[in-house]
Design a protein that fits this description.
- The chain has 262 residues and is mainly α.
- Among the domains are: 50-106; 116-212, no CATH class.
- The protein is built from 7 helices and no strands.
- The protein has helices at 49-106, 121-141, 158-175, 184-203, 207-212, 229-238, 257-261.
- Helix 2 packs across helix 3 (158-175) and helix 3 runs antiparallel to helix 4.
- The longest helix is centred in the N-terminal third of the chain and has 58 residues, at 49-106.
Length: 262
């Protein structure tokens, strides 16, 4: 058969690499794909713009409400801090007063209302009244034998005044201030009352008052400290060191071998 001039070369000579199904390697196949970060950002579609604006407005209102709540919270906290500051000032003042009261109670240099020699007029009047009530109540409650009885002129005997007012103070501690039963009640008689009554019988010096049924000034008198007291004390002080010595007549820890080693 003769070759048809209308056709080109035979099909077997046709280059099929350009066809979609060709098997010839694509020169660009070995190149890497572009990074996703390099892709352009998508644009907002115009029809979505009203919806986005509405959402932003809603978010803004929500933030404003939250800020309002925060402002209210901060204001409440400020008020609380102010109130707590006032309470703290009150507590500080109360603590200062309490501390002052404690210092006053433990102040050994200040005599109490039971110290006869340092009482004011009002304090003395109160303690005389209370002590008389106690003595009259005690005499009625506890009839005593003649050996230890208390004469009506007890208030003229300073030893009796101190003993009886102290017994009254112990009685108040045992029986006043609480309704709870305590051993202080029985201890008041056993430890304080009866020993005081026994001491009065020995030392109050009111035997003649009882015999005469009226007050008799005790004949026994004691002289006060003699005038040589000041000179004796000055001589004693002059013999003493101005600073306390660290040397003791007995062994101390610093004198021991262990102490020297340390």
């Amino acid at each position: 058969m003769s070759e048809d001039p209308r056709h080109g070369p035979e099909d077997t000579d046709v280059d099929t690499s350009a066809e979609p199904g060709g098997t010839k390697e694509n020169p660009s196949a070995g190149s890497e794909a572009p990074d996703e970060g390099d892709e352009p950002l998508p644009l907002l579609a115009p029809e979505l713009l009203p919806e986005v604006v509405t959402e932003l407005a809603s978010t803004s209102e929500q933030h404003e409400r939250q800020l309002g709540k925060l402002d209210a919270t901060v204001s409440a906290l400020d008020d609380t801090v102010t109130e707590q500051s006032d309470v703290l000032e009150e507590l500080t003042a109360t603590f200062a007063a309490f501390e002052e009261g404690l210092i006053e109670k433990v102040n050994q240099a200040k005599p109490s209302r039971w110290a006869w020699g340092w009482l004011t007029q009002d304090e003395a009047r109160a303690l005389w009244t209370e002590t008389r009530w106690f003595v009259d109540w005690f005499i009625s409650r506890y009839p005593l034998t003649s050996e230890v009885s208390i004469p009506p002129c007890w208030y003229r005997h300073t030893v009796a005044v101190d003993e009886l007012s102290d017994a009254y103070a112990a009685w108040r501690e045992a029986y006043c201030g609480t309704s709870r039963p305590t051993t202080a009640m029985i201890a008041w008689r056993d430890r304080w009352l009866w020993p005081a009554i026994t001491r009065l019988a020995t030392h109050a010096n009111w035997r003649e008052c009882k015999e005469n049924r009226q007050h008799v000034e005790p004949s026994a008198r004691q002289d006060l400290t003699d005038p040589e007291f000041e000179r004796f004390v000055e001589d004693d002080i002059a013999k003493r060191p101005e600073v306390r010595t660290k040397d003791m007549p007995w062994p101390t820890k610093t004198d021991s071998p262990a102490g020297r080693t340390a």
